[in-house]
Design brief:
alpha/beta; 7-stranded mixed β-sheet; 10 helices; 7 strands; 20% strand; globular
Length: 237
């Protein structure tokens, strides 16, 4: 089994466990939706692709908003489950580093908690840029390396995060990487401290009451828990 097959096997096991334990919402859906609303780009009639769509809830909500959406995930298990839950949505299984779509297909490409898992971020961004229409937008969220390394180390009591989060970025690193790959990035501050996030901190022994009082809309970008980015496709020439 090569490294890519091993990686896929991990995601299949993860999703089978999530489905068996009825814990299929693995991301901060509430804040992700608030971010999409804040972009003002979610308007009826647009075409969109969600990478890492998981069990499909966000894709289904976007379709209800009039977006012609395709939800995709590397996990066949997740895709099959999403199809059962939301049969009216087009779900497909493929990686975020190889997108099986024509050039200039989508107005919007979205990913939440995807980029940090990828081994080749530049290839991923090149593929996203290719399938976006001129002046299309990549709307993404990824953890801040500064805070995520601390959280994941406390969570696992080890450096295991290097295996499943090989592409964490600091603020400046992510900004430069997006610009290098033909995007004009605009970072958006979101308050990530809701019940979902607080419970994550409590599970690793951190005081939830403390984090409830932090509003990350007032925290510098470099200290955010997660980066939310509106990245417009630019003319690289």
């Amino acid at each position: 089994m090569d490294s890519k097959e091993a990686e896929n096997s991990v995601y299949e096991r993860r999703w089978k466990y999530a489905i068996d334990t009825d814990n299929i919402q693995l991301g901060n859906l509430q804040v992700n939706l608030e971010f999409l609303e804040a972009t003002t780009l979610i308007t009826s009639g647009k075409s969109g692709l969600e990478l890492g769509s998981g069990a499909g809830k966000l894709a289904s909500l976007l379709q209800e908003r009039g977006i012609s959406i395709i939800g995709s995930d590397i996990s066949e298990t997740a895709v099959e489950h999403a199809r059962k839950l939301y049969p009216a949505v087009d779900f497909r299984a493929h990686s975020a580093e190889n997108l099986p779509y024509d050039d200039n297909t989508f107005d919007l490409v979205m990913s939440f908690d995807v980029l940090e898992h990828l081994s080749d971020v530049d290839r991923h961004l090149g593929q996203v840029r290719r399938v976006l229409k001129d002046n299309g937008h990549y709307l993404c969220q990824t953890p801040n390396k500064f805070s995520n390394v601390i959280f994941e180390t406390l969570k696992t009591h080890s450096m295991q995060w290097k295996k499943y989060h090989p592409s964490l970025h600091y603020y400046g690193q992510l900004k430069r990487r997006l610009e290098k790959n033909g995007f004009d990035p605009q970072f958006v501050k979101m308050n990530t401290m809701n019940e979902y996030a607080v419970k994550k901190f409590e599970r690793i022994g951190l005081p939830g009451w403390l984090f409830r009082w932090i509003n990350f809309r007032y925290v510098p970008f470099r200290l955010q828990t997660n980066f939310y980015v509106i990245a417009r496709k630019t003319d690289k020439s």
